[in-house]
Amino acid sequence: xxxxxxxxxxxAQIERAREFDAALAPAAYGGLVVGLALVLVLGLTxxxxxxxxxxxARVPRWPLRVAVAALALAVVLRVAALPFRVWSSSVLRRYxxxxxxxxxxxxxxxxSLAVTWVLWTIVLLLLVLLLRRFPRYWWTGAALGGFLxxxxxxxxxxxxxxxxxxxxxxxxxxxxxxxxxAMADRDGVPVREVLVAxxxxxxxxxxxxxxxxxxxxxxxxxDTLLASPPERVRSIxxxxxxxxxxxxxxxxxxxxxxxxxxAMCLLGALLTSPRLxxxxxxxxxxxxxxxxxxxxxxxxxxxxGTQVSAPVQNLVSRxxxxxxxxxxxxxxxxxxxxxxxxxxxxxxxxxDLDPDPLERLLWSTHPSSPERIALxxxxxxxxxxxxxxxxxx
Length: 393
Hints:
It contains 14 helices and four strands. By secondary structure, the protein is mainly alpha-helical.
């Protein structure tokens, strides 16, 4: 499959995408390196245990100490990442990709910190409770609990977390709403509602998605996307319906839950290692990891595991996204509109048209826009349809 960005994007557009990527990359790499270094120093040296011990010294009960430890670690890591987040946001402002005021932006950071703290507190509380009650077999309960938490979180996310960051309103009755619901029905995907997210108060980028399961499943369209021609909106929603029709979210949730369960078993082996506990400033002969002071060690191990598995997750994600693209083409039978939508998305979002191998490994969850347009042309040839014409003059 031939991929040539110059066929669909002008030299100026390609250069703008390169400049944007070059401006954003230092903040991204810097944030990654500093975040990993800090979490490893806190988790794999006595510094983390001492810090947690200091902030929880006057807290009377261990559950409260766990909550305070989670908050303290979340704040430290957020503060360390803040300069890089500000840097990234400044780049987005310079390129016109955000409409959000700094006051609103900092409000989002505070809300994100609150959500992180709640999640970390729940996980650490359950972990320490199991370690105290079942010191030899705690990892079996942790594996089961991790599995259930991931599944429950996937169901709760659309109705609990999403409204924290966006307001949603029903798409007014009309041709577009009827077309989207009819397309979902034709695709065999039960959809409760079509909602519009007020994304324009933060960004100028275009997007849509299908979220939720069963009674919570809904199509969500960014209000920025509604200015696009209806056929392009249908094309991007058809891609999202592809995820729902093939059960990508459900299977992804179950796979993620199984991954977390397996990680808890590995964590069980690591948290019983006397050498590792001593390195983290914990007493293998005493409470070991069954103490709030072990929070930094747990966080470090989880962070390393997440980062190591990210390239594999990204590879799988790109395959799934390509499959959803094929589904959208099968559903709409309109490769020309699909290609036009991908060009519009790339221009509006200033997408990286040719990501370098390291960026692709670390962050690319979708095929590049030229790859997706090439897929549309391959689909057209295979089905005897007219190929989308070149997009660059």
